[in-house]
């Protein structure tokens, strides 16, 4: 029996509300030659019952039932090892895909063989509202495509032999499981191509569809381990020469800085200062001046970090910088650009003075995370 074209791996954890929509979108794919590996990761709701129902009616479904919750990374790695397809795809069990998703991705491989093929459009779904993100908008060179590909694993397919031969698996952490996998796979892929006709529907309203995240409030600290693992693999790999290693170490520094910095504001209030001080120490010895990926704003943020002794000091500097930047835009608009001047005038007319004040207060709240 020949191998299926694509193995679709679906980790499932307590998603009975959304699971049927997910499974319907996969079993009804126009590409029929797929295997569907569903891994029930210790669900405590009716997810397993639904999975059994679908498995009985479709012999392409392989159902694995884990008694205890092991986490999304364990489930995906289990699926990779079990898979038989030429390519591997991942779908989260509260998301869904358009019905020709895998056929279009696979047809793209027939035109140009590649290690990674990514869908062009992600549709963000929140409270029944949809907004599309065209992540490959406009013409981009290969470097930009690799940079943008470092995000999520689920809107792509990966050549199975590429993953196995390079020992690329998910880092087994409870959250941020895509960080290591997407960076290393994007780094080692000989080519990454874009499929123009695919849509992945990402439900952005649940904490996790894949694992128990009881310690979510403290979870951003896991990111430090994720990025340390990336550094270790880059330094140890024999696939890259010294020049490429240096190039990807610089990229890894930039990726870590931008990824870790945003969580200084998102992490829960009681952990902010502890997280900030660890973040500051983490980057205190890196030579940012020689990193080609850092722009002026990145350097300003870095300077604010180095002179701050606490998160409160840092947040005030960031807020001050944001307000100064907004004032600079307004002054520039009035002095140099008539069309922008008209826009600003209309903005004040439509929103009113109170509206503008409210928008500024929202900016302050976002940065300071006032409860």
What descriptors fit this protein?
371 residues, alpha/beta, Spore Coat Polysaccharide Biosynthesis Protein SpsA, Chain A, 3 domains, 13 helices, 9 strands, globular
Overview of this protein structure:
It is a single chain. The protein is α/β, with parallel strands linked by helices and 371 residues long. It is 50% helix and 16% strand. Strands 1, 2, 3, 4, 5, 6, 7, 8 and 9 form a nine-stranded mixed beta sheet that branches. Helix 1 links the parallel strand 1 and strand 2 (34-41). Helix 7 packs parallel to helix 8 (222-236), helix 9 (242-266) runs antiparallel to helix 10 and helix 12 runs antiparallel to helix 13 (338-368). The radius of gyration is 23 Å and the shape is globular.
What would you say about this model in short?
With 371 residues, the protein is an alpha/beta fold.
CATH topology of the largest domain, which one? Spore Coat Polysaccharide Biosynthesis Protein SpsA, Chain A
Beta content comes to: 15-25%
Q: CATH superfamily name of the largest domain?
A: Spore Coat Polysaccharide Biosynthesis Protein SpsA, Chain A
> What's the overall geometry?
globular
| Amino-to-carboxy terminus distance | 59 Å
Q: Could you give the count of β-strands?
A: 9
| CATH class category of the largest domain | Alpha Beta
Largest sheet: 9 strands, mixed
Unreliable stretches: 211-215, 325-331, 339-357
How many structurally independent domains?
3
Helix content class: 40-55%
**In CATH terms, what is the architecture of the largest domain?**
Alpha-Beta Complex
């Amino acid at each position: 029996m020949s191998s299926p074209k694509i193995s679709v791996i679906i980790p499932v954890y307590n998603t009975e509300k959304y699971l049927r929509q997910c499974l319907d979108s996969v079993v009804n794919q126009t590409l029929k030659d797929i295997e569907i590996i569903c891994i029930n990761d210790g669900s405590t709701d009716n997810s397993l019952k639904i999975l059994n129902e679908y498995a009985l009616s479709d012999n392409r479904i392989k159902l694995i039932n884990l008694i205890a919750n092991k986490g999304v990374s364990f489930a995906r790695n289990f699926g990779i090892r079990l898979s038989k397809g030429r390519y591997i795809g991942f779908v989260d069990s509260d998301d869904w895909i358009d019905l020709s998703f895998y056929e279009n991705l696979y047809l793209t491989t027939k035109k140009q063989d590649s290690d990674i093929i990514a869908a062009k459009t992600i549709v963000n779904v929140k409270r029944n509202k949809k907004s599309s993100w065209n992540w490959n908008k406009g013409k981009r060179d290969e470097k930009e495509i690799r940079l943008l590909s470092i995000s999520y694993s689920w809107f792509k397919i990966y050549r199975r032999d590429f993953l196995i031969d390079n020992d690329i698996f998910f880092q087994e952490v409870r959250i941020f499981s895509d960080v290591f996998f997407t960076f290393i796979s994007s780094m080692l892929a000989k080519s990454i191509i874009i499929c123009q006709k695919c849509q992945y529907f990402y439900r952005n309203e649940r904490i996790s569809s894949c694992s128990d995240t009881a310690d979510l409030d403290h979870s951003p600290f896991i990111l430090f381990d994720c990025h340390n693992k990336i550094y270790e693999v880059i330094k140890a790999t024999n696939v890259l020469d010294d020049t490429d290693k240096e190039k990807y170490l610089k990229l890894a520094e930039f990726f870590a800085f931008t990824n870790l910095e945003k969580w200084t504001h998102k992490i829960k209030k009681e952990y902010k200062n502890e997280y900030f001080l660890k973040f500051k120490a983490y980057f205190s010895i890196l030579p940012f001046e020689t990193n080609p990926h850092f722009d002026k704003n990145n350097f300003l943020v870095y300077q604010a970090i180095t002179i701050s002794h606490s998160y409160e000091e840092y947040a005030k500097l960031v807020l001050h910088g944001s307000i100064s930047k907004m004032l600079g835009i307004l002054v520039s608009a009035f002095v140099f650009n008539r069309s922008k001047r008209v826009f600003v005038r209309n903005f004040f007319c439509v929103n009113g003075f109170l509206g503008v004040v409210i928008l500024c207060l929202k900016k302050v709240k976002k940065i300071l995370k006032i409860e």
